[in-house]
């Protein structure tokens, strides 16, 4: 069973260990020192940043990190992506990693993405779509998105996380299902 909660400062040691794993470090260019982890994950853990850093557990054991946010909360990134593909103003994006290299290739990634996307329709009632850019050479990541039901909608030239990579990213999208309509607009009183 998959569950998740917001990352707290007590998780920073685990995040540092995961980010140092070669299968993660290749795609997530982070300073894994205590100071670097605090700088990169502290604001979200304290609620001072709009992104959600979620610690995913399988049967109570931490297995993954998922970051979820609205593109609109990060205007520079929103502009970079929206300048190249159709991006709804209410789109959400996610990023993810599996911490244990022994869990890669066992179907856990697609299960996590599928579960987080499904929860997004409830957690974020204004979200119209989940849109995920992933580097074109990160086959494991974009295959996980495909297995989770997202569809490739195009290619975008974006700043890569790893400066050794080129700018080519595949962009994946899934729209809010018909069974999860967005909330009605607020009622205003017209005198």
Automatic annotation (TrEMBL):
Pfam family, one: Acetyltransf_8
Domain of life of the native organism: Bacteria
InterPro entries assigned: Acyl_CoA_acyltransferase (IPR016181)
Name of this chain's protein: GNAT family N-acetyltransferase
Organism taxonomic ancestry: Bacteria, Bacillati, Actinomycetota, Actinomycetes, Kitasatosporales
